[in-house]
Design a protein that fits this description.
- The protein has 146 residues and is of the alpha/beta class.
- It is built from four helices and five strands, in the order βββαβααβα.
- A hairpin with a 4-residue loop joins strand 1 and strand 2.
């Protein structure tokens, strides 16, 4: 599909919790954009979610989007778990509050505003675009040190 935005995301954390970063590689019609950022005290899962949120916020109009992530947490959360969480008032099957519900809500709204398909990539397996997203996430951590 040529008129589709390809997005590769990754999150990283030094310690869990600890300083964390997110990275995004966005490709559309041969043009690439990179973005990264970080938080001083966070978790790996929060950074994985932030990467996808930041990527979708980079879009300027509704267009088909294909997101590749190495996070099973993000992938399964969006494709398997979120419908039940919403039905259960943002509680898990065990009746506990969903962790990172604030970010899941933001991501859910962004996904609803776009045409999103999902792809899981095994992390650190040599996939060049996933490796770039990983480097950007680590740059997000480095950027915290000023």
């Amino acid at each position: 599909m040529p008129d589709r935005v390809e997005i590769y995301t990754d999150g990283a954390c030094k310690g869990n919790p600890g300083p964390g970063g997110w990275g995004v590689l966005l490709r559309y019609k041969g043009v690439e954009k990179e973005s990264y950022g970080g938080e001083s005290r966070t978790t790996n899962n929060r950074m994985e979610l932030m990467a996808v949120i930041q990527a979708l916020q980079m879009l300027t109009r509704r267009v088909p989007v294909h997101i590749s992530t190495d996070s099973q947490y993000v992938m399964k959360g969006m494709t398997e778990w979120i419908a039940n969480w919403k039905r259960n008032g943002w509680r898990t099957a065990a009746k506990k509050p969903v962790k990172n519900a604030d970010l899941w809500c933001r991501l859910d709204q962004l996904v609803a505003a776009n045409e999103v398909s999902w792809n899981w990539i095994k992390g650190h397996s040599g996939h060049p675009d996933n490796e770039r997203a990983d480097q950007l996430a680590n740059r997000g951590i480095t950027s915290l040190q000023g």
